[in-house]
Every structure is written in C-alpha cells, then in structure tokens.
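Annotated sample (chain length 70).
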Amino acid sequence: MNLDIVRERIGKFLNKDVVVEVYGMRNKNFQYYGRVSGVYPYVFTVLVDGVEKSFNYADVIIGDVVVKLS
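Output written by the structure step:
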C-alpha cells in the first residue's frame, strides 16, 4: 500500500461519517466518531464534536490509524 492509494481511499470518505481508531504507545487506544472534513496532500481531517482533528496518511499505512465507515 502506498500514499496515493491511501489518499484515494480516504478521499472517497469525504463528507461521510467514519470511525477512526488510533493505536498509540503504551496501549493507549482512542476511538473517534466523526465526519471526514478535508483531504490534503499529507493529512486528512475529521470533524469530531465540532473539533477538527488531523491524521497522517503514513500512520494509516503502518497501521497506527484505522478509518472505517460508521
């Protein structure tokens, strides 16, 4: 999987409700429910409860961030 494929797949989620799972260090995992609000060259943004959070495509490639339709 490369950056262009991930960017294209997440681009299809633009303005759709998603679940973003973030696997952090020391078993700190977070789950965000929101709407993909922006797709940019190196990051994408998700609107979660009125706050825009940004995520990196590289983290999706290595598996630290998982994006699914809700």
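Annotation: Residues 3-69 form a domain with the SH3 type barrels. fold (CATH 2.30.30.100).
Annotation: The CA atoms of residues 22 and 49 lie 17 Å apart.
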